């Protein structure tokens, strides 16, 4: 029986480190698992930073990162190379991060701003009575209405709004995070804002 030679793996890994993403994708499709390890090594740090900007939570970002690479590995044979691998992977990762946030919204933690289920139109008591309770309630209700309106947007429009809202980033940065062109991102943002104005009125 042949013994395992760790040196062979090291040599292959060094060779793969000089390969392009396209070559690594094709090698992974052909069954070379170390090629996908190299893709992980090459892109995981950047992808983590991207999803962390979406989730603002390290644990959620790590979950989104793992989920994105798992989905990419499982569906790699369907990747046709029309976009860059990094762009394709970033889209998967952002979608994974947004799914995590949606699941958390479905089971929100009780907070002062949101209130417990059934408290939609009520205010909670504050020990500091110097706070303007009425103004706080108005702001909270407006925020809730906006969140509900955003959730009802079409997915393509909701994505750009949620990313910009959570990170307070420019349109250009939203385009980079979604992999869309700047013109397409601007168009989606304008349509999303118009739809939100209609829903809120």
Q: What's the layout of helices and strands?
A:
Elements: H1 6-16, H2 21-29, H3 33-55, H4 58-74, H5 85-106, H6 133-151, H7 155-167, H8 171-178, H9 182-200
Give a nutshell description of this structure.
This protein has 9 helices and no strands.
Main traits of this protein?
2 domains; Rna Polymerase Sigma Factor, Chain: A; Arc Repressor Mutant, subunit A; elongated; 0% strand; single chain; mainly alpha; 201 residues
Model description:
The chain has 9 helices and no strands. It is an all-alpha fold. α2 (21-29) crosses α3, α7 packs across α8 (171-178) and α7 crosses α9. The protein is elongated and about 65 Å long. The chain starts with 5 loop residues before the first helix and ends with a helix.
CATH fold-level label of the largest domain: Rna Polymerase Sigma Factor, Chain: A
Point out poorly predicted stretches. Answer: 1-7, 109-133
Range of helix content: over 70%
What is the 3D shape?
elongated
Specify the CATH class of the largest domain: Mainly Alpha
User: What is the residue-averaged pLDDT?
Assistant: 77
Tally of extended strands? 0
* Element-by-element helix/strand order: HHHHHHHHH
Q: By helix and strand content, what is the structural category?
A: mainly alpha
Largest sheet: none
Distance between the termini: 75 Å
Helix count from the secondary structure assignment:
9
CATH-assigned homologous superfamily of the largest domain = RNA polymerase sigma factor, region 2, helix turn helix motif
- CA radius of gyration: 22 Å
Count of the domains: 2
CATH architectural name of the largest domain:
Orthogonal Bundle
How much strand content do the residues show? under 5%
């Amino acid at each position: 029986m042949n013994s395992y030679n760790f040196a062979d793996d090291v040599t292959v890994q060094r060779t793969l480190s000089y390969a392009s993403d396209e070559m690594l994708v094709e090698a992974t499709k052909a069954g070379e698992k170390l090629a996908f390890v190299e893709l992980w090594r090459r892109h995981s740090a950047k992808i983590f930073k991207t999803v962390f900007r979406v989730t603002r939570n390290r644990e959620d970002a790590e979950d989104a990162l793992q989920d994105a690479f798992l989905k990419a590995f499982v569906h790699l044979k369907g990747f046709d190379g029309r976009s860059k691998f990094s762009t394709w992977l970033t889209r998967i990762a952002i979608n994974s991060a947004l799914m995590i946030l949606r699941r958390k919204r479905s089971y929100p933690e009780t907070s002062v701003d949101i209130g417990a289920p059934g408290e939609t139109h009520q205010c909670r008591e504050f020990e500091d009575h110097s706070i303007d309770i009425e103004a706080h309630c108005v702001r909270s209700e407006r925020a809730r209405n906006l969140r509900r309106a955003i959730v009802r947007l079409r997915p393509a429009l909701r994505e750009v709004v949620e990313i910009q809202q959570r990170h307070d980033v420019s349109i250009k940065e939203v385009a980079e995070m979604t992999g869309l062109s700047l013109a397409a991102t601007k168009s989606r943002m304008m349509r999303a804002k118009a739809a939100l104005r209609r829903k809120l009125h």
